[in-house]
Every structure is written in structure tokens, then in C-alpha cells.
Amino acid sequence: MKKAIYLFIAMFLMSISLNAQIDLKGKIKNQALNRANQKTDQGIDKGLDKAEEGVVKAFKKDADDEETAEEQSDEESTDEEIWWRQ
Questions:
Q1: What are the pLDDT digits (tens) for 19-41?
Q2: Is the pLDDT confidence value at 67 over 70?
């Protein structure tokens, strides 16, 4: 009988210690919050990337317009030189 009581007490204490080690509700809550924060951060990063691309394109467009104008004037002069040589 003493062995059964000791066994019962040992199992009771082990169940209490295991229950304290695994906090399933808290773990799920933390993981859900972490996931929500991660998705929010990704959304913010995408928005900032799009804004950054818009700024870069605006300044690049001005530089491209200048280069295109120079290339067109170079092509026109080359075409005229070829026409005059014939």
C-alpha cells in the first residue's frame, strides 16, 4: 500500500511539473503575435520599397530623357553624314 501511495504522489508531482513546463495557450498566443508582427513588417517593407522605386524612377527618368535626347541627336548627325557621303 505504501508503494501505491508513493507511486501516486510521484505521478502527481510529475504531472504538475510537466504542466508547468508546457504552456500551450501562451505558446500559441506568442506565435500568433509573432506571425502578425512579421506580416505587418513585411507589408510595411513592401510599401517602402514601392515608394523608394517611385523616387528612383522619377530621378532616373530625367537622366534617361537627357541621354535619349543626346542619342537621338547623335543618330541624326550620323544619318546625315551617311546621306551626304552617298
A1: 556 677 888 999 999 999 999 99
A2: no
Is residue 64 classed as helix, strand or coil in its secondary structure?
helix
Q: Which amino acid is at 15?
A: S
d(CA 9, CA 16): 11
* Cα–Cα separations (whole angstroms), residue 67 to 19, 58, 59, 60, 64: 71, 15, 13, 10, 5
Residue 4 has what pLDDT?
A: 82
The helix (run of H) or strand (run of E) holding residue 22 is none
Question: CA 45, CA 38: separation in Å to the nearest integer?
Answer: 10
Task: Look at the chain and count its residues.
Answer: 86
Residue 40's closest CA among 28, 48, 51?
48
Residue 1, classed as helix, strand or coil, is: coil
Which grid coordinates are listed for 67? 541621354
